[in-house]
Design brief:
The complex is a heterotrimer. By secondary structure, chain A is of the alpha+beta class. Chain A folds into three domains: 191 residues, Alpha-Beta Complex (Aldehyde Oxidoreductase, domain 3), CATH 3.90.1170; 235 residues, Aldehyde Oxidoreductase, domain 4; 137 residues, Aldehyde oxidase/xanthine dehydrogenase, molybdopterin binding domain (Aldehyde Oxidoreductase, domain 4). In chain A, 27% of the residues lie in helices and 27% in strands. In chain A, the strands form seven sheets. Chain A has a seven-stranded mixed sheet. In chain A, strands 4-8-16-15-14-9 form a six-stranded mixed sheet. In chain A, strand 14 and strand 15 form a beta hairpin. Chain A starts with 21 loop residues before the first helix and ends with a helix. The mean pLDDT of chain A is 96. By secondary structure, chain B is an alpha+beta fold. Chain B has two domains: 75 residues, Beta-grasp domain (Ubiquitin-like (UB roll)); 71 residues, DNA polymerase, domain 1 (Orthogonal Bundle), CATH 1.10.150.120. Chain B is built from five helices and five strands, in the order ββαβββαααα. A five-stranded mixed sheet of chain B has the order 2-1-5-3-4, with helices on both faces. In chain B, strand 1 and strand 2 form a beta hairpin. The termini of chain B are far apart. By secondary structure, chain C is of the alpha+beta class. Chain C has a five-stranded antiparallel sheet with strand order 4-5-10-6-7. A four-stranded antiparallel sheet of chain C has the order 11-12-13-14, sandwiched between helices. The chains are: A alpha+beta, B alpha+beta, C alpha+beta. Chains in contact: A-B, A-C, B-C.
């Protein structure tokens, strides 16, 4: 299954190759941001607002304390730096509410950075930070989107005859859903180290990030420096899940501090900061209406989506809710749709992309509504889906995107077959089954790669993608090695250093194999062409004559051969660049869950979970399955225990793991993961994206399984014992 | 205070403040950064090392408390270069992705398998609950521990 | 998060330790509760008194049928003790729920008692067993029961200059069964509710609830009822009679029932 080679597996591509990156991790030889200890560095601690909303009268820093180098407030930043930029949403509107580096006149969320102290050690910096006096005038916080009168993003699309669809419908089904905020919680918090070489005017920044490109572009913009004067290095990264994409305000501060003090400056975020100040995921509600005819054919859809964006627009804050809106028709053939999304400001930390970034929300809102419809129509939820699935590709959706390929029906049938639906009720427990389908956007924009021959004949590939656990070093090596006809050991990959890799887009949105992998393939192909030309010249044969053989050797018709080493010697530094662009491709899937709820306590047990994902051609089934299981754990976390709750004063209750739970190994249910492969025509590998499917399909399937167990009562996550116990009693089931 | 701590058989003598955590001593004074810090609350387990062979949270011990004691970290698992069966099993079973939590898991599970060489799956899952992972979803880790247990018992040698 | 600065002393005996205790000092036992508070800067003692060098506080033995546990006994030692497993099975069952193995390696029995977290397993089990707690200060010694020791969440009647030095557990009644159950959101997480029970049908019952109130308290009405022949369900219902919140009461009641059923064998 997941860890066996696919049907179309080649020598390496499609095989469950074990990872080359493992050994140094297993031996403890990694270097994450905090493992880097520049001697004499100044360590940063931030003064953060303890209020969700407050006017700031003034900031007084203590007189020079032993071991403290400097204190930085917004006043020190004036004229030197602007707010972080804000990315727009296509076809929509976003406010100009960029996140300031340090709060100046007001603090708008608890945990917002107000000042920074630099000292000899983190402990000393924290000591000094406690002595910074900030004159706060607390104001009333706005904690509910309904109470907010500040809109920060808006998008609306009306397509097809929606009025007509609803007017002529035999059934109009209405359902409202809510997904609370989640904290991304990578095991490694954020961090940055900056160092300024005044003589060369080069700012070097090490940052725990999802790629060097967005960090570099962001820093250049906010610091108003030319990009060539900034060198970004991404070391080993301990997970990100979307939270380390754009530069954090703290990272900008660290860079500025290096520029102004001439010291090397280090910020290693601690867990409290990470929970409180790192942008969060989800935090969206929707009212959905589905119009159906008497046979259960979906005629039209309306959705009003309300997103809790938090206090500011981080560069990518507006994007997830927009993605949700674009995917509201999901896997169904609905050509009349009216979808609006409004993003409201609240006095909480901003939201932003977090594993799934809008797709889990869309799948959740739609799939839950479909099950409500099935119940109201008295139809089997699987049958209702079958009657409406998109079956012909490419498929242009009413909301704007075009699905390239897929086999939604096959995914659904396979999920149903593998999960073995169950529904029971006895004195002690109730059991239910639910399904959730999804379609998700993957890839898009472009990605870069450079393929070079090293003097010893080995291949060096520099990639714009940037791994933080996904295994690109192995996956891309598989692609490159197979393309060139060499072994994995003959391929070296380089990532993450802005001076070592070509400018690219980065790793997020399930894009790396599709885009980064394709760029690698194209770069290797282009290199092969150049090498062939060299061989033709050296062997003195016609341009089209040299043919590639085993082990990366190339031969003339008469059998004379050049090895890669000889080619490299003939043209030292031979290399080829590729910049691969494509439209978005669309992965999809069907998830099924069987859950059991204990009457006495409301305790939920997941009996089994099935994941059927279609991410096109799978390059490494072992790693792909790892992504699915990891995503499932996060999706289950959302369902069972995770929720970022602010109290009535707007203070986080999740400042430590006592207030925010993560699932452990003991909670994972049996999982069956299977792949359907509908290759995409959009790239040479035929691959889509698999990084987020687990977190997208799981909540929808779980919610539907819970509702099934409860006899139709709908509950939003997290499915706490209290909620389920109460619902079960109400259900009379 | 002057302290002397043995880590992986090597002695480190340093002048430290009482408030210096053992995790910071190991990482920044002994320079052994294989041990990671994920929460400083004793919950995530990334900082797990062994004190006289028993697994502990190094973020919940003061460095001064370790003076005169022997600590083993992930760097001490494969001293002669050859990987420990657990390390090999993690690799085979794809039990790591970003790797940040991995040293903590290895140090916890090495101790667990020494005490429970023939664990049931339920025991393995419960023992693993003391370490958090945000990437893998744990199933690969469960498999790795079971695999390593079999290998360490010699079961695999007989093809079992 | 790094701790604020503090002075540190590591006395080698109880005699050396006593003069160091006071309102401005914090006792460092296993560190599994204190150090997180130091790291979050929620505890800011001037002096940390480290008891880990006091060997005389680390023991488990039974004299005349009474179990005596030195306050610095590691939770893992309690877990591994054959003596405890055979003769005080409730303690063996309860300690296995404490956190994770890594916590139990350092965490101490006395530390858990003195910290008095309402979600902690050992205080509840000890309460059910009618344990007594020995406190010593320069002013002398005193012995208190659970009801007198645990006064509120994270709060005991131990004076700042007193050292908890021993936990005394009376003989488990002959033929007694033991049961412990708890509920936590994830395995090893702080318990949200739980119950400890030790029962000899018809003659003895010790039942204490975790998370049902501000302190681990014995459910005396339930104990009497059980001795009087009530069923596990009836006794459990009595035990949670005053728990607020419908679901909370149902959850606590179910856990109490399970613990009692387990004790009844």
């Amino acid at each position: 299954m997941g860890t066996e080679a696919g049907l179309s597996a080649g020598r390496l591509v499609g095989r469950p190759v074990r990872r080359r990156e493992d050994e140094r991790i297993l031996r403890g030889k990694t270097r994450y941001l905090d493992d880097i200890d520049p001697p004499g560095a100044a360590h940063v601690a931030f003064v953060r607002s303890p209020f969700a909303h407050a006017r700031i009268g003034g900031v007084e820093v203590p007189d020079a304390l032993e071991g403290t180098f400097a204190a930085i407030t917004a006043a020190d930043l004036e004229g030197r730096v602007g707010d972080l930029p804000v990315q727009g949403i296509q076809g929509g509107w976003v406010a100009e509410q960029g996140h300031p580096v340090l709060a100046s006149e007001e603090a708008l969320y608890s945990g917002q950075p107000v000042a920074a102290v630099l000292a000899e050690s983190r402990a000393l910096a924290e000591d000094a930070a406690e002595l910074v006096e900030v004159d706060y005038e607390p104001l009333e916080p706005v904690l509910d989107t309904r109470a907010s009168d500040v809109t920060m993003s808006r998008w609306h699309k009306l397509s097809g005859d929606v009025e007509g669809a609803f007017r002529s419908a035999a059934h109009v089904v209405r359902a409202s859903h809510s997904l609370p905020r989640l904290a991304p919680v990578p095991m490694e918090p954020r961090g940055a180290i900056a160092s300024y070489d005044e003589a060369e005017d080069i700012l070097t920044v090490w940052v725990s990030a999802q790629d060097s490109h967005r960090q570099l572009a962001g820093l250049a913009k906010v610091l108003d420096r030319p990009e060539e004067s900034i060198h970004v290095i991404v070391p080993d990264v301990g997970g990100a899940f979307g939270s380390k994409g754009v530069p954090a305000p703290e990272t900008v501060l660290v860079a500025l501090a290096a520029l102004t003090t001439g010291r090397t400056v280090k910020w290693a975020e601690d867990r409290e900061e990470n929970l409180v100040a790192s942008y969060q995921g989800r935090g969206v509600e929707a009212d959905v209406e589905l119009a159906l005819d008497a046979d259960g054919k979906m005629l039209g859809l309306r959705a009003r989506i309300r997103a809790d964006l938090g206090a500011y627009l981080m560069p990518t804050t507006a994007i997830p809710a927009h993605t949700t809106a674009m995917l509201m028709c999901g896997v169904y053939d609905i050509q009349a749709a009216d979808v609006e999304v409004v993003g409201a400001r609240t006095n909480k930390v901003p939201t932003g992309p977090y594993r799934g970034a809008g797709r889990p929300e869309a799948a959740y809102f739609l799939e839950c509504t479909v099950d409500v419809a099935a119940r109201e129509l008295g139809m089997d939820p699987l049958e209702l889906r079958r009657r409406n699935l998109v079956r012909e590709f490419p498929y242009k959706t009413a909301l704007g995107w075009t699905y390239d390929s897929g086999d939604y029906e096959r995914c659904l049938e396979l999920a149903a077959e593998l999960v073995g639906p169950e529904r029971r009720s006895d004195e002690e427990r109730v059991v239910g089954t639910g399904f959730g389908m999804y379609v998700e956007r993957a890839g898009g924009q472009f990605e870069s790669a450079r393929a070079e021959l090293l003097p010893d004949g080995r291949l060096l590939v520099r990639s714009g993608s940037s791994p933080h656990g996904q295994g690109h070093d192995t996956t891309f090596a598989q692609l490159a090695a197979e393309r060139l006809g060499v072994g994995l050991e003959d391929v070296e990959l380089r990532f993450g250093d802005s001076e070592e890799v070509p400018r690219g887009v980065g790793t997020f949105a399930s894009r790396s194999v599709a885009m980064g992998g394709s760029a690698v393939v194209e770069a290797v192909d282009a290199l092969k062409e150049k090498c062939a030309a060299v061989a033709a010249r050296v062997l003195e044969v016609g341009e089209d004559e040299p043919a590639w053989g085993e082990g990366g050797s190339i031969s003339a018709a008469d059998g004379r051969t050049m090895s890669l080493r000889e080619l490299a010697a003939a043209e030292p530094g031979i290399h080829a660049d590729a910049r691969f662009s494509s439209d978005l491709s669309f992965s999809s899937g069907a998830y099924g869950a069987v859950v059991e709820i204990e009457r006495a306590t409301g305790s939920l047990r997941v009996q089994r979970l099935v994941a059927v994902d279609d991410a096109g051609n799978i390059v490494n089934p072992l790693l792909a399955e790892g992504q699915v299981i990891g995503g499932i754990a996060q999706g289950l976390g959302q369902c069972l225990v995770e929720e970022a709750v602010y109290d009535e004063e707007g203070n986080p209750t999740f400042a430590s793991f006592v207030g925010y739970s993560l699932l452990t190994a003991a909670e994972m249910p049996p999982v069956t993961a299977a792949f359907v492969e509908s290759p995409t025509p959009l790239n040479p590998i035929g691959a889509k994206g698999i990084g987020e499917g687990g977190s997208i399909g799981t909540p929808a399937a779980m919610a539907n399984a819970v509702a099934d167990a409860l006899g139709g009562i709908r509950v939003d996550p997290p499915f706490s014992e209290e909620k389920l116990w109460g619902a079960l009693r109400k259900s009379g089931r | 205070m002057r302290i002397s701590v043995e880590v992986n058989g090597q002695r480190f003598e340093e002048e430290v403040e009482p408030r210096l955590l053992l995790s910071d001593f190991i990482r920044h004074r002994a320079g052994l950064t294989g041990t990671k810090v994920g929460c400083e609350q004793g919950v995530c387990g990334a900082c797990t090392v062994q004190l006289d062979g028993e697994p502990i949270r190094s973020c919940l011990m003061l460095a001064v408390q370790a003076s005169g004691r022997a600590i083993r970290t992930v760097e001490g698992l494969a001293p002669n270069g050859e990987l420990h069966p657990l390390q090999r099993a993690f690799h085979e079973a794809h039990a790591l992705q970003c790797g940040f939590c991995t040293p903590g898991f290895l140090m916890s599970m090495e101790a667990f398998l020494r005490e429970h060489p023939e664990p049931r799956r339920e025991d393995v899952r419960e023992a693993l609950a003391g370490n958090l992972c945000r990437c893998t979803g744990y199933l690969g880790i469960i498999e790795a521990v079971e695999r390593a247990a079999r290998e360490m018992r010699g079961a695999d040698v007989q093809g079992g | 998060m790094k701790p604020p600065p503090f002075e540190y002393q590591a006395p080698a005996s109880v005699e050396e330790a006593l003069p160091l205790l006071g309102p401005d000092s914090a006792v460092l036992a296993g560190g599994q509760s204190l150090v997180p508070l130091l790291n979050l800067r929620l505890a800011r003692p001037e002096l940390v008194v480290d008891l880990n060098g006091i060997a005389e506080l680390d023991y488990i033995h039974a004299d005349d049928g009474v179990l005596r546990i030195g306050a610095m006994t590691r939770q893992v030692a309690l877990e591994r003790s054959e003596l405890v497993r055979e003769r005080w099975p409730l303690l063996h069952k309860a300690v296995r729920f404490v956190g994770h193995a890594q916590i139990r390696t350092r965490g101490t029995v006395g530390g858990s008692v003195a910290h008095a977290d309402p979600a902690a397993e050992l205080p509840v089990a000890l309460a059910a067993l009618r344990a007594r707690f020995l406190l010593r200060s320069p002013r002398g010694e005193r012995v208190v029961g659970a009801a007198e020791l645990f006064v509120g969440p994270l709060s005991t009647s131990r004076e700042p200059d007193e050292l908890l030095f021993e936990i005394e557990v009376p003989e488990h009644p002959a033929g007694a069964g033991a049961g412990f159950s708890e509920h936590a959101r994830t395995h090893g997480d702080f318990a949200t509710a739980g119950a400890a029970a030790v029962v000899v049908p018809g003659s003895h019952a010790g039942i204490a609830l975790l998370g049902a109130g501000p302190v681990p308290a014995r459910a005396e009405a339930a104990e009497e009822a059980l001795v009087g022949g009530a069923s596990a369900r009836e006794a459990a219902d009595l035990a949670v009679r005053d728990v607020e919140g419908e679901h909370r009461r149902a959850l606590c009641g179910e856990l109490a029932r399970r613990a009692i059923e387990e004790a009844l064998g």
